[in-house]
């Protein structure tokens, strides 16, 4: 299988000591390309640096996660704009709203999000979206400008049927992670994933977070990594009632179109 991990936090400190081995293990199971998530100006620059070291394998996003929205300034916006000028940066984000943890004031989150939507409009690059318990506010920002946004993906989708269909009605792509393997929180996704059109379904690990709970044996360190995208693909394929090779082919083709990958 040829797989694309559209959301990998490879700048995380847990990957520093064995980064090359992590990539090798991913390649070993068919994960041929990965999009490294930017969550702040500094992490976005680090994601681009990684992409520069692994051309044709790693790509990057550039954005400020809502947790860091309180530090979003005009200088931050300028730094992101400069990063987005690089062809290896394929999307604006991770950006959005998070009212679950509320690590930044909601007004600051909305300001940072709206400015990053503006960057997507200016650059023509797609949006890589984060949303927790802020669905209505996120959609309210995006709906008026949806026709001017190139593409958008609801990264790490964990929502209900209403949220899914709001996103599909806006022609968003849907990113599915190992959350679907969590019998406590993600069981509802096993039904919903059947309803996502094949051309708008994307797969991601969100590593080092969200280690699939159905993985056996689990690594002792509990760190998620891109090699486990194969397991997520197999779980999604089972829930969709199709061969894993079909899910892999469809999601890879969708990722190639979304991120304009070679």
Written overview of the protein:
39% of the residues lie in helices and 16% in strands. By secondary structure, the protein is of the alpha/beta class. The chain has one domain: TIM Barrel (Alpha-Beta Barrel), CATH 3.20.20. An eight-stranded parallel sheet has the order 1-2-3-4-5-6-7-8. The two termini are 17 Å apart.
Write the layout of secondary structure elements.
Elements: E1 3-8, H1 19-28, E2 31-36, H2 41-53, E3 58-62, H3 74-84, E4 89-98, H4 106-123, E5 127-132, H5 135-142, E6 152-154, H6 161-169, E7 173-176, H7 189-192, E8 201-203, H8 229-240, H9 244-259
Parallel strand pairs: 1-2, 2-3, 3-4, 4-5, 5-6, 6-7, 7-8
Helix pairs in contact: 2-3, 3-4, 8-9
